[in-house]
Write a structure and sequence with these properties.
With 500 residues, this protein is an all-alpha fold. The protein contains 19 helices and 2 strands. It has a two-stranded antiparallel sheet. The relative contact order is 0.09.
């Protein structure tokens, strides 16, 4: 297949993915009224086909395709109001609260002190989450005001760390009218494209294949969870990517400190980048640890001064609501153990993986250890929120082994397990299948790669001449053949030698 035909095939595959993802976020356009999961599966297959075709495209052409394809897919996602997750409404509210000079950790969204900040977009009678007068009367100490809102969990404080809150404030300043989710979606889409640029530049400097950036740029998880759902995780991933690339190439103390600071800011955006810490401590661990912890503490200090322990936010309540504290949330571990012991086992597994990464991962390839740690955390905790795998997708692009994307794809089965009205597994098996199958896929990929490496090594070995082996001859009666005398021409004899 020549270059032009291959590029056209890539464009066709990405167009198919775009159409399927559009049907996911705008179900009204779907004439067959399909459920989300079959459409997402189709989008993933189209994405993988495009990434496969990209392998033999020249690098310059590949860079253009990666950027244009990523921008086009994000534009499709942004063109539709959020389809599933409503976390972005909390982002918009927290930005508005901060713009009014109020610390975002101080009050819950339905607090009486914030009634004056309500608008018709986020608070209206037809909204999904309502606080009834009866609930307000039964919780007088909370100082709540009844009403309905788009913001989920309107009676609990925000869960997002300070850097995320600063991001929400920045987006609010870009569009203070806060009457649409488009600004926060467009900003998240732009950050996703920025991550693509970081990967292209970073892979080039590391002398790795820049085509691997397509695994991030075109991935359905990135399209749906950045451009459409606008999850703040994409901001944390962008900062983590910068930290990983800085520390992977750090040869000076100044660069190491910069990478550590970026790591601390990433963790202060969303806690998931903490999974990259064991791999990033493989080189100059003390400097990285001090810089990261210093940046993390620094962004919390202003909020601690203003609201004290309220900066913890809803994190403890979230762990309790998701049943992690009771030990009944672990999909794979839960097949064998349930209860507090399951939590102990989960912590032991994660500690063992972190120790192995810290001890044995390659310091020049920190993304590999971070990828293993992130995948292990997904397999152990089996979250039903597919955007938690955004960090893994970025690390896969750096690492170059696409089979690990199975964890990102599996997250969608955990979130939307119904293929149809009649085709579904028992609810207890959903999470185990969603994250157990990726373990099998990664294991199979490891075996295949090892076998291919062995064959390549054997083929590369020079041929060695083997010493000749003389076979023994069996003793037998000797057969002599009489020699036949052949006539010999007489040579002339010199005259002087003739004697009479």
């Amino acid at each position: 297949m020549n270059g032009k035909l291959r590029a056209a095939a890539i464009g066709l595959a990405l167009s198919v993915a775009a159409v399927l993802l559009l049907l996911v976020v705008r179900p009204s356009l779907d004439p067959a009224n399909l459920r989300p999961l079959p459409l997402i599966i189709g989008a993933w297959l189209a994405f993988l086909a495009a990434a496969w075709l990209l392998r033999k495209v020249p690098k310059r052409t590949a860079v253009v395709l990666i950027l244009l394809g990523g921008i086009g897919l994000q534009a499709v996602a942004v063109s539709v109001p959020r389809a599933f997750s409503n976390d972005l409404y909390r982002y918009m509210w927290d930005g508005k609260v901060q713009a009014a000079g109020i610390d975002p950790y101080q009050y819950v969204p339905t607090a009486t002190q914030l009634t004056g900040l309500r608008n018709e977009f986020l608070f209206h009678p037809g909204a999904q989450y309502c606080v009834s007068p009866g609930y307000v009367a039964s919780h007088p100490a909370a100082e709540l005001t009844a009403g309905c809102t788009r913001i989920n969990r309107p009676t609990v404080p925000t869960i997002y760390p300070p850097v995320a809150e600063a991001y929400f404030l920045g987006v609010y300043y870009l569009h203070p009218a806060d009457d649409s989710s488009l600004p926060i979606q467009a900003t998240a889409a732009a950050v996703a494209v920025l991550v693509t640029v970081l990967l292209l530049v970073g892979l080039g400097r590391l002398r790795r294949d820049v085509r691997m950036a397509a695994l991030w740029s075109w991935c359905p998880t990135v399209v749906l969870e950045a451009g459409n759902s606008a999850h703040v995780d994409v901001v944390a991933v962008a900062i983590t990517a910068a930290a990983v690339l800085a520390l992977a190439t750090a040869r000076t103390t100044r660069r190491t400190i910069a990478g550590g600071i970026l790591l601390g800011l990433a963790i202060a955006t969303k806690l998931t980048p903490v999974l990259a810490v064991p791999a990033l401590l493989r080189r100059r661990w003390f400097t990285v640890a001090v810089a990261a912890s210093g940046a993390f503490i620094a962004v919390y200090i202003p909020h601690v001064i203003r609201v004290g322990t309220k900066v913890v936010g809803f994190l403890p309540g979230y762990l309790q609501q998701e049943n992690y504290t009771t030990g009944s949330r672990y999909g794979i571990i839960g097949l064998f153990i349930i209860g507090p012991l399951a939590t102990v086992v989960a912590l032991l597994i994660l500690a063992a993986v972190a120790f192995a990464v810290l001890q044995f991962s390659h310091p020049d390839r920190p993304w590999t250890g971070a990828l293993v740690m992130t995948a292990a955390a997904l397999a152990v905790t089996t979250p039903a929120y597919q955007w938690y795998s955004l960090l893994l997708v970025m690390l896969v692009a750096l690492d170059g082994r696409p089979e690990w994307l199975a964890f990102a794809a599996g997250g969608y089965y955990a979130a939307y397990p119904a293929l149809g009205a009649r085709y579904f597994l028992p609810w207890r098996l959903h999470d185990a299948v969603a994250y157990g199958v990726p373990l099998v896929v990664v294991g199979a990929g490891w075996l295949i790669r090892n076998e291919l490496a062995k064959r390549a090594a054997l083929a590369a070995q020079p041929a060695i001449a083997q010493p000749a082996v003389t076979e023994p001859v069996a003793a037998g009666p000797a057969v002599t053949t009489p020699a036949v005398a052949e006539p010999v021409a007489a040579e002339p004899v010199p005259a002087e030698e003739v004697r009479v």
